Structures are given as structure tokens and as C-alpha cells.
Amino acid sequence: MFYTCGPNEAMVVSGCGRSPPLLIAGGRVFVFPCVQQIQRISLNTLTLNVKSDKVYTRHGVPISVTGIAQVKIQGQNKEMLAAACQMFMGKSEGEIANIALETLEGHQRAIIAHLTVEEIYQDRKKFSDQVFKVASSDLVNMGIGVVSYTLKDVHDDQNYLSSLGKARTAQVQRDARIGEAQFKRDAVIKEAHAMQEKISAQYKNEIEMAKAQRDYELKKAAYDIEVNTKKAESEMAYQLQVAKTKQCIEEEKMQVQVVERTQQITLQEQEITRREKELEAKVWKPAEAERYRIEKIAEAEKQKLIMEAEAEAEAIRMRGEAEAFAMEAKGRAEAEQMAKKAEAFKQYKEGAMVDMLLEKLPLIAEEISKPLCSAQKVTMVSSGGSEVGAAKLTGEVLDIMSRLPSAVEKLTGVNISQALASRMG
């Protein structure tokens, strides 16, 4: 057997072959009699008057709140429809509405307890959104969806809201009085500005009129001056013409005098030129020739002195170079001689030293005997006799000569006696 239902109703078919039960929202279904059962559940929208009396707010003020909610079982969502069938199958719309109302009222009271009177009264949309959000999350588990929620009324028995209204009314009245005073003040200010602009416009008009009068008088005076000038010019024209004629005559006379004076000046200049040429030929030319001759003689003397000085300097330089070369050659020869002597000393050692000493012994003896040679008179004093004194002097001289080899040996480290013996051998 076929069964049908409208869009505001849902059918649940259970029984043989229907596990889980078949859910149909707005449609038709075939049901086997005796072995299958069909049940219906309403999908109509339910209007709930959610009223919460004397609920204490967060500050302890009791208020009564009334809200209007629209709820319905969601037939398009199979899960929510199955949950609603499990909970409300066989119940009437009134019973379903009562369950949803109790749930909404409980959430409404809970939200009121967390808000102040001012927050509920001044921001109703916020309160409605909170109730809608909390109730929807709870009723959706029952398969019921909250279509809308609106706060309908808020009142209390303690005249708390009316006090708030009075304060607001007083504030509005105060603002009205302030606005009226400000409007009056602005009106007075604008009126003063209008009067000021009126006076300013009047003064500007008078100034423009004075300027126009001044321009008229200035132009009139300029025209009068121009007319008087023309009259004066016309009156003085004849006298000016007479004066110009006289001036032209005087200029012609002066021109004749200028021509005459110019001719005289030309003659004088020609005479001066002739005399200058004569003076140049007789005086300047000979003087110039003499000056040139003297300059050339002085320049020749100067060149002669310069050449002599340069020749002398060159001779001095060449003598200096020759002397320097001679000294350099002498020094080089002496250095070579000293190098050869040093080389000979290295080779012959004591023999070279003996040769040098033998060469220098006469000089040493000469130096030793110089004091005796310089003596002009030798007086010998002796208690014995003259022979004894002479012998004593001779012995002292011989003693000095005998100590000479030992002194040389101490100075040079060379034994002269051995060196002489070796050479003699």
C-alpha cells in the first residue's frame, strides 16, 4: 500500500526489511501491511514564547525577560531527523514545543545571570545572539533547529529600568538645552558676522565711490594740463622759431671760424713735422749712431772679460784636476807600495822586520845622538883624571847602544841578534 505526506511532515517506516527504519520527509512510500508499520512526525515551525520572570542579573537586580523563538525539526538532515524521531516519535506538537521551550528558557536564564541590566537593555542584539548560539548547540542534539530568536520585552518590579530611562531622559534634555544654547549662540554670531559683512560692504562701496571720484579728478587735471601745455606750446612756437633761426646763423658763423682755425692748425702741424724731420736728420740720427757704437764697444769689452774669466776658470779647473790626478796616482802608488810591503811582511815576517829596522837604525842613532851633537861644550868633572871621565862617558854611550836591541825586541817582538845571525849564515 502506498502512503504519502506533505513537505511539512515526515514518515517513518519500520518492520520487516526496514532496519534501520526508513525516513521520508515530504514524499511517498510503499508499505507492506501487517509486516511493516508507518508513523508520522510533524515538521511544522513552532513559535515559543520564552518567558523568564524575576531572574537575578550579575549585579543582583531581578528582571523579567520575554523572548520569541521559532524552532522546527530539521527534515532535510537525516541525522537530525533520526534523532528527533527517537526522542519525539508519538508526541504531539504541544509536547515537542514544551520540551524545546523548557530548554530555551533554561539557557535564557543562564545568560541573564551572566549579564548586567544595562548590557541586556542597551545591547539586545548581543543578548539575542548569545541565546540563539547556546540554545542551537543544545537543541541540535534533539534534532530541533532554532530558526530565530528575538528579545521581546525586558521589565522589572524595582523601577530600575525606569531610573535608567530617567537618567537618559535627563541627559537628552540636558543635551537639548545645550544644543539650543549653542544654536542661539551660533545665531548671534552669524547675525554679528552678517552685520559686520554689511558694514564692510558699505565701507567698500564708499571706498569705491571715493576712488572713482579721485580718478575723475586726476583725469580732469591731466586733461587740463595737456590743454594748457598745448596752449603754451602754440604761444611759444614763434619765439622758438626765431631763436632757432638766430642759432642757425650763429652756427654758420662758428663753422666759418672753425674752418679757418682748422687751416691754421694744419699749417702749424706741417711746420712742426718739417722741423721734427730736420732735427731728426741733424741731431737724432748722429746721436743714435754714436749710442749704437758705444753699446757695441761695451758689449765687446763685456764679452772679452767674460771669455777671459771663463778661460781662467777653465785653467784653474784643469790644474785642480791635474793635481787631483797626481795626488790620486801618488796615493795609489803608495797604497800599492804599502800593499806590497804588507805582502812581503806576510811572506818573510821577521826578515822583513829586520830589513826595516836596519834601514831605520841610522835614523834612530841619529835621533839618539842629536842631544850630544847639539851640545857646544862638554865639561867633564872628575876627581880622578880626564882619562877616567872620558872613559866613563864612552861607557855610558856604549851601554845605551847595547840596550837598544832589547828595546826593539820588546816593541816588535823580533830578536835582532838572531835575525842578523840567520841572515849572515
Automatic annotation (TrEMBL):
<dbReference type="InterPro" id="IPR027705">
    <property type="entry name" value="Flotillin_fam"/>
</dbReference>
<protein>
    <recommendedName>
        <fullName>Flotillin</fullName>
    </recommendedName>
</protein>
<comment type="subunit">
    <text>Heterooligomeric complex.</text>
</comment>
<dbReference type="GO" id="GO:0070528">
    <property type="term" value="P:protein kinase C signaling"/>
</dbReference>
<feature type="domain" description="Band 7">
    <location>
        <begin position="84"/>
        <end position="266"/>
    </location>
</feature>
<dbReference type="GO" id="GO:0002020">
    <property type="term" value="F:protease binding"/>
</dbReference>
<dbReference type="GO" id="GO:0002090">
    <property type="term" value="P:regulation of receptor internalization"/>
</dbReference>
<dbReference type="Pfam" id="PF15975">
    <property type="entry name" value="Flot"/>
</dbReference>
<dbReference type="GO" id="GO:1901890">
    <property type="term" value="P:positive regulation of cell junction assembly"/>
</dbReference>
<dbReference type="InterPro" id="IPR001107">
    <property type="entry name" value="Band_7"/>
</dbReference>
<keyword id="KW-0967">Endosome</keyword>
<dbReference type="GO" id="GO:0045807">
    <property type="term" value="P:positive regulation of endocytosis"/>
</dbReference>
<dbReference type="InterPro" id="IPR031905">
    <property type="entry name" value="Flotillin_C"/>
</dbReference>
<dbReference type="GO" id="GO:0005768">
    <property type="term" value="C:endosome"/>
</dbReference>
<dbReference type="Pfam" id="PF01145">
    <property type="entry name" value="Band_7"/>
</dbReference>
<dbReference type="GO" id="GO:0016600">
    <property type="term" value="C:flotillin complex"/>
</dbReference>
<dbReference type="GO" id="GO:2000049">
    <property type="term" value="P:positive regulation of cell-cell adhesion mediated by cadherin"/>
</dbReference>
<keyword id="KW-0472">Membrane</keyword>
<comment type="similarity">
    <text>Belongs to the band 7/mec-2 family. Flotillin subfamily.</text>
</comment>
<dbReference type="GO" id="GO:0072659">
    <property type="term" value="P:protein localization to plasma membrane"/>
</dbReference>
<dbReference type="InterPro" id="IPR036013">
    <property type="entry name" value="Band_7/SPFH_dom_sf"/>
</dbReference>
